[in-house]
Design brief:
Helix content is 19%, strand content 32%. With 316 residues, it is an alpha+beta fold. The strands form two sheets. It has an eight-stranded antiparallel β-barrel. A three-stranded antiparallel beta sheet has the order 9-10-11, with no helix packed on it.
Amino acid sequence: MKFLYPLICIVFLTISCKEAIKNEKKFVAEQSFEEIQFTVPKVSNSLVVNSKEDLLGYWVGGFRANITDSALDSIYDNDNDSVNYLYRKITFSIDEIKGDSIFGHSISAGNISPFKGLLVENDSNFEINVDEFKRERTDGNFSIQIKKTDSVMKGNWIAYHPEEVKISSRIFDLKKKLFIYNKEATLYSTFRNTDKFKNITVTDTIDDEVEVYEDKEYFSTTQKLFEKNASNEELTSDFVSNLTKADIFILRNSIFARHGFAFRDKQLRMYFEQFDWYMPVFGDVKDELTEIEKKNIDLLLRYEQNAEEYYDTFGR
C-alpha cells in the first residue's frame, strides 16, 4: 500500500529511508509534516466525467502564473529563478465526495495542502469551489469547472496571503490521470543545478580579437546518464564508478520519480516535471521499490559521496 505525505518518515524514520532519499552527502527531510489524515482516493478508472464518481482521483497538469504580459516580461528579465514559480506541475487529488461536499488535497512544489468545499452538479457541468484549509502562506481558494463528457478540469487559484507570495493567482487546465508505475520511463534531458555553480574566466578569439569575459559553469550531468535505466536493469560497479556525482544523483532519484515521489527539492522537482510520465503523487514510496531498484540505490549511494563533480556551461 502506498502512503501519502502525512505518513512519510514522521515517527518511525528509519536509516534506510534516510539513505534512500538523501540529497547530496547528508539526508535532509523533504518537509516537516503535521499529522493530517487523508482518505486514499477511490480512483474511478473512467477518464471521462459523466458522474460524481468519475471526479475521484488524480488531476494533473500545469499550474501557471496568472499575470499580465508586461509583468511576465519583467520577472523574466529580473529574476533568474522565474521558471521555478511561474510554471509548476500540480496534482489535484479528489479523495472523497459526500453529497455536495468534496474533500481532497493538492500537491505543488512539494507542498501538500488538504482542501474541502462544495460540489454543484448542473445539467452540463460540475462546479467545484474548495479552500485549502491549513491557511498557510502557500494556500488559497480553487474555483473549478468540469464539463460533462469531458476529461479536463479548468479553473483558477487565488492565494489567501497575496502579499506573502510572488504569484498570488494561477490558472490551470488539468487532465485526469491514472497513476501507473512504468519502469521503462526514460530520461531524455540533461540536468543542471542552477543553484550550484562556479565562476570562470573565459578567453575567446572572435574575428581575430581576443575577448576575456566572466561566465558560470553549473553542476551538470553527462551523456552517460542516458546509457542505463536504474529501474529495469541491475547496474554494475564498473559502470557507476565512471559516473559523475550529478549522473549518480539523477539516476538514483529517477527511481523515486517513476514511483510518483513528490520532490520537495526545487532542482529535482523542476527537472522531473518536464517529463510527461512524471506524476507527483506520493510522499513515501520505499515500500514500492523493486529488488533491482533497491540494489541499484545501495550501489549508487556507495559511490555518490566520493564521485567526481562535473560542471558545464549552458549551451555546450
